Amino acid sequence: MAKNAALVGPKFPQVLTLVGATGDLSRRKLLPGLFHLCSAGFIPNCRIIGVSLDGLDAEGFRAFARAALDEFASRKLDETKWANFAAILDYVPISAGAAALKTAVQAAEQSIGGECRRIHYLSVPPNAAISAVHLLAEADLVANSRIIMEKPFGTDLASAVALNARLHEVFAEEQIFRIDHFLGKEPAQNILAFRFGNGLFEPIWNRNFISHVQIDVPETIGLGKRVAFYETVGAYRDMVVTHLFQILGFMAMEPPTALEPKPISEEKNKVFRSMLPIDPKDVVRGQYTGYRAEEGIDPESDTETFIALKCAIDNWRWAGVPFFLRTGKRLAEGQRIISIAFREPPKSMFPAGSGVGAQGPDHLTFDLADATKISLSFYGKRPGPGMRLDKLSLQFAMHDTSFVGDVLEAYERLILDAMRGDHTLFTTAEGIERLWEVSMPLLDAPPPVRLYEPDSWGPKSIHQLVAPNAWRLPFERARRGQKTTES
Ligand code: BG6
After folding, report:
1. Which of 42, 83, 159, 306 has the highest Cβ tally under 10 A?
2. How far apart are CA 224 and CA 319, in angstroms?
3. Which residues in 243-360 belong to E strands, given as ranges?
4. What is the value of pTM for the model shown?
């Protein structure tokens, strides 16, 4: 059993209904994550009922889960643990209807015996969420349950408001867990630890010391089996209005009065309320060459596979500090960074040619990979005669510590939190609706998509967007122990 697993696990046994059980997310993340949580002892007593459109039976679902684990589990598969996990899996095709689902959940509860809790994970696209909610209501599975909703939560302000209203007809707000898996990443939580656990950084965390911020999440992957979903959604709805804005919330919020759901949501929502509406002039939408020729894509598709934008938080802490966000598919490198550029010194005593300032401003960089990495770059003296300055850096990598084996993958952490009823790392209806509200000028009048070559960093106009600053990625100098490079 993982260290302290039983201490942080849910109080009651859990029956989890996984709607969308044969989808991409389930295969890649949810089934491998649930396997780890169960086999490491975090959820000592659990039953999982897969639900989806596919006409499988329990054996078929077990075979599906095994294939998913073989392909995507991050840890080596132990056969005894697999046998134990396979034994807790069951399956109900949607075509079997609500009564069959109810029977399966009741059978699972009886096999556990004693008091247990229900948790429903809706891993379905936005247009299928409400019918899944109704299926659960018809199956009488609402009482004594919690529901995890996948993003994107709606596709614009009106649909998000309507979705929240219809959801509230069935589930009470405290039963709902709107997941944003970026908030479950250890490094995202580390932003809070770093900012509020130290006296050193918070005093400089404002417009007086910070010149601009970049939240940059380029991806090398294409769309694979997700084309049908992605074509209707695009990069802004898939990544920005969800993950990137939530990270921005953690980065920009005021200290909460406590590390609890309500105070944290209040502070994040204040940031979202202070955000200025997104101006389409501050947005670059891109599409990689060849996207339109892919199977299932409209040959005249206007869906963006890339987006870069500038946004502003108009409050006392951040007025005048631009936040640049970028993400896209089929880009040159896969990275997930928050990079904070500090203001340069007001005056330089170094002689011309000394190198001071030549490699951009000092940066604090958070790497949002599963295990935290943080670096602080600064100018220091190059050894030897005279005074030549060079960019140096202090670097921390969780990989260098003995804790690295304890890192929970984002979905694992969030599923566990939802089972424990802890809303701290989940988003709220109010916050999401506000983010759609600031997005509406862009969604109503999106600038045309510009083509970019696969394996590039996006359309050329991204440089104008950040001028006179520059994109931090690609890094220019080697990180310690890594091939990637950083300045
Ligand atoms: C998902 C998006 O929510 O996040 C994907 O739908 C994206 O398009 C993924 O690739 C990125 O997540 P991660 O954890 O791999 O950075």
Report:
1. 306
2. 40
3. 283-288, 306-311, 323-328, 337-342
4. 0.93
Mutation probe of ligand 1 site: the residue of 178, 219, 230 with most atoms within 8 A of C-beta: 219
SS3 at position 308? strand
Write down the catalytic residue from 120, 212, 243, 363: 243
CA end-to-end span of the chain: 41
Residue 373 has what pLDDT? 94
- In the reported structure, the alpha carbon of residue 477 is separated from the centroid of ligand 1 by a whole-number distance in angstroms of 26
Structure tokens at 309: 């934008």
* 10-residue averages of pLDDT along the chain (487 residues): 67 96 96 96 94 97 98 92 97 98 97 95 91 96 96 92 94 96 94 96 97 98 89 96 97 96 96 98 98 94 98 98 98 97 93 91 93 94 94 94 89 96 94 97 98 98 96 77 44
Chain centre to alpha carbon of residue 132: 23
Q: What residues does 47 pair with on adjacent strands?
A: 15
Identify the residue whose tokens are 């596979």: 305
Q: Select from 30, 72, 74, 181 the residue to mutate for testing ligand 1; criterion: most ligand atoms less than 8 Å from CB.
A: 181
pLDDT reported for residue 74: 86
- How long, in residues, is the chain? 487
In ligand 1, the atom with minimum distance to the C-alpha of 368 is: 16
CA 459, 462, 464, 469 dihedral sign is negative
Q: Give dist(CA 104, CA 62) in Å, integer.
A: 15
Model pLDDT, residue 484: 41
Residue 101: in which H helix or E strand, if any? helix 97-112
Beta bridge partners of 390: 380
Cis peptide before 152 (omega within 30 of 0): yes
Task: Output the pLDDT for position 111.
Answer: 96
219 Cβ inside 6 Å of ligand 1: yes
- The Å distance, Cα 417 to ligand 1 centre, comes to 20
**Could you give the C-alpha distances from 109 to 41, 47, 301, 416, in angstroms and in order?**
19, 8, 47, 19
Q: Given this model, what pLDDT does residue 485 score?
A: 40
Q: Ligand 1 within 6 A of 238 CB?
A: yes
Separation of 412 CA from ligand 1 center, angstroms? Answer: 15
Pairwise CA distance, residues 327 & 481, whole Å: 26
Task: Pull the structure tokens for residue 75.
Answer: 């840890």
Handedness of CA 197, 180, 249, 325 (dihedral sign): positive
Is residue 181 flagged as an active site residue? Answer: no
Contacts of 9 (CB under 8 A, 6+ apart): 41, 42, 43, 44, 416, 419, 420
